[in-house]
Amino acid sequence: MGPRTTTEVYIVENVTAARDTIVGGNTSLGIELGSTRIKAVLIGPDHQPLATGGHEWKSKLENGVWTYDIDAVWSGLQAAYADLASAVESAYGVQLETVGAMGFSAMMHGYMAFDAAGELLVPFRTWQNTITGESAHALTKLFQYNIPQRWSIAHLYQAVLNGEAHVGKIDYLTTLAGYVHWRLTGERVLGVGDASGMFPIDTATGQFDAGMLAQFDSLVADHRYPWKLRDILPAVLPAGREAGRLTEEGARLLDPSGKLRAGVPVAPAEGDAGTGMVATNSVARRTANVSAGTSIFAMVVLEGPLKQLHEEIDLVTTPAGDLVGMAHCNNGAVDLQAWVGLFGEAAAALGAQVDTTALFQTLYTAALEGDADGGGMLAYNYLAGEHVVGLEAGRPLFVRTPHSSFTLANFMRTHLFAALGALRVGMDILLKDEGVELDSMFAHGGLFKTKGVAQRFLAAAMNTPVSVGEVAGEGGAWGMALLASFLRADGESLADWLASSVFGGAAIETAEPEAADVEGFDRFMERYRDGLAIERAAVDTLH
């Protein structure tokens, strides 16, 4: 079942049974605060959505810092919940007064620091900010563990380096999801997946790494702050452990109408990476998921620690606490979409009326007829910088030689390959340098909507079977609803529960890597790596 707008109605075979399920509270609610939308999903015992609600919002740049107003957090949550409750009443004729379990997720990382009175000390600093380069570099060197700029600990140490007066007043430091959870339950708790984007996790204990905590305390000891780092961080819990209950105050915060009753069990708050893994059934070891849209990234569940430090790879965990290697690339399908748009303009200039979906399908499918390596051509989709190849800025490029086979099929194949090029560089670190082994990879996002094209090329790029299918439900909010439902699982691991209870009958299609495609993509990547000098020259020359 794909994403829907709030105005769409779910087709439920037995409305009476669904109504009884809602009234009886045999449901689970997940709410996720994404970067542009807050979404609520109510699911039944079969884990399928009964209703959804949503609210649009966006960050703002204030004094050089990307932030969201705290008031907007609560007005947005209330609007999304009210939209959901309205959808329930419209579809089933009952008011939403309780649920069996609930959970909250949000964008990971960032910085929310509170004093002892629970007041926010500085405006929320989101993951979007790149103002912590000095601290991220210093902490990576100290811990010998990659600390990206967006991590909470990087923001904290940058505030220390900047001499910000508020640091000595910090009583609690958490993420956006952790903040919402705290206000609704009174519990200073965080799911391990979201916590892993604040500070490194020791996967043997499932807690923040004790050795690194001590290193940080020593690093800032001269400042004589009244806190130790562990004291101001949330408690860490794995999926399946109850993390508190909705308080009366929390119920009124979420539903000012007064209909929602307190006492609902609440799952540990999670980050959007974790809910995405749950929603794609990619939490078991040796599994991965690839998401391709404006950016493209892969989450790979590892069997153990990496052998060495790689600043190109982020290390987080699943909601169950297993280590995950993340290869994240800033540039996804945007440049490719621009080329498709150009062909659409050409068609319109000739008087043709071409449906956008048909245009994408026609052009993407043409790529299947191209030469295995794209005909000797080269493209870079870098509208922005790309950390994985060491570029702080980007310039989209298309390059060919007089001997290239310049056909539509090869042109499209080259640009589809280019959309996967930076990801391949990052994944080579995991699959080749580190020897990570994969049993399966699930792909989702707009790039994979045309059946059998990008899926086939990704299988070639990774030399791994790639599956697609209608299993991602309502995205991260659905993943959070599943984590809430997992509170009622009977001792199963999260991976086993998802495989048996949620995704057992899911319809998926798997593409095996074809030898000719694998060889062709490898030849393309040789050009791609060699041609990075051209891209660097373009960045230096074209201002």
From TrEMBL:
The keyword Ribonucleoprotein does not apply. Keywords: Carbohydrate metabolism, Kinase, Transferase, Xylose metabolism. The keyword Transmembrane helix does not apply. Residues 29-276 form the Carbohydrate kinase FGGY N-terminal domain. Pfam families: FGGY_C, FGGY_N. GO terms for molecular function: kinase activity. One of its GO terms (biological process) is D-xylose metabolic process. InterPro entries: ATPase_NBD (IPR043129), FGGY_C (IPR018485), FGGY_Carb_Kinase (IPR050406), FGGY_N (IPR018484). Residues 288-485 form the Carbohydrate kinase FGGY C-terminal domain. Belongs to the FGGY kinase family. This is ATPase. It comes from Tessaracoccus lapidicaptus. The lineage of its organism: Bacteria, Bacillati, Actinomycetota, Actinomycetes, Propionibacteriales.
